[in-house]
Amino acid sequence: MSKYLLTLSLLGLASEGFTEINTQNNCAPVPPATCFEDECRQCYCLGPENYMVNAPVCPKTCNGDFIIQVAGFYWNAHQDGMEYALETSVQNPFIANPLGPSTAETQVLNNLVDAEYFTPNFKWDWGFKIGLGYCTTCDGWDLGVTWTWYRGKAFSHIEAEADDQHTLLPLWSAFAPANGGVLFATDAESRWKLSLNLVDLDLGRNFWTSKYLALRPYIGIRIAYIKQGWDIEYKGGSWSAFQSQSVPLVQAQSTFNNEVCLNNNFHGVGPRAGLSSEWNLGCGWGIYGNWALAIVYGRFSIDHEEHNTQAVAPYNGVKILESDSSFRASRALLDLALGLQYSEMFCDCAYGFTGMIGWEHHHFFHQNQMWRVVRLGDNGALPLVNNLNNSGENGFFQRRGSLDTQGWTLTLKFEF
User: Fold this and answer.
1) CB atoms within 10 A of CB 225
2) What is the pTM of this model?
3) Among 321, 194, 196, which Cα is nearest to 263's?
4) How far, CA to CA in Å, does 180 sit from each of 61, 251, 385, 387, 391?
5) Cα angle at 99 between 98 and 104, to 5 degrees?
6) For residues 246 and 102, what is the distance between their CA atoms, to the nearest angstrom?
7) Does the N-terminal peptide bond of residue 271 adopt cis geometry, omega within 30 degrees of 0?
8) Cβ–Cβ under 8 Å, residues 71 and 337
9) What are 30-64's pLDDT values in tens digits?
């Protein structure tokens, strides 16, 4: 009987101890705590003066916060390696021979005098972010998801007429002039479009390091969809109708409009980590500074086409080249933000509101993977086949570059 009594006593003690441990580790919501006011009557639930070391900033309502975030922004995008034409201050070859320049007459274009590279004129455009999160009562851990949507564009148009003292040299065309001379144009137009979609899933903790500074380290996953389309049109010059002077037996070519179409698409997923900071100025005002780095593994899909279309009836088209490439790679994505914010609690700490305005910069490393194909060594010795000169050889070049977006962002947060 004594053994049974001893066993029951030990079980009772174990059960009591387990209940105590379970109570200590319980993360269930607790009844609302007292909200405190500072000298500016700004309310907060838990703060550096009322909690332990590294007190959590949220939940602000003391019972777990749902967070809705909406942001609108006005950004500008840029990308390296987008030079599409070179303007040289050399007389247009048609001045010397209006019927069509010879090979020798176009060789002067190899002399670059006061030359200037032209890139697309990148425009400013609107976009938005939508986020949903929840800050738990478990030591202030928070979970959230944010979707970023942006459409960028660029447009540029340059001309160099026959009576101007300059000439345009195409940088992306693989067309070979009928006379085997240097390729040139009198009109060039570039149109570029960017489609950017980012989805971020974060796990973080926002905590006070002092009365005036709060930090939020976080980890998560980024899903990225980055699509680019670039169209370049070249007209006049080597695409004009003329009789070859170097090879008189060659027929006169038609008048063409040339178009180069490129697509550079990337989609992938990878880990992301960052640190957000809030520098409290008092009375609800503060300065925020954030950064994050993601390594995204995904697939590039690169398409490249070029064709000539007759500028007169029957407007037939001739394809010059068609190529595509698909490969997997990892790319780094860097996010930076700096700005001013204001926070307020109202209705006895039942609701929270934060407004933020600042400058953001996002850098997408090595996104430009487009190949440039040009024709080298044309001599016009062979007759035209479908209005194309098939002499010479193709030259392949790749000027890789990074993509970036930057601009002003206005963010509104509501917590309840």
Assistant:
1) 14
2) 0.80
3) 194
4) 76, 14, 14, 13, 8
5) 85
6) 5
7) no
8) no
9) 444 455 555 565 555 555 455 556 888 888 776 78
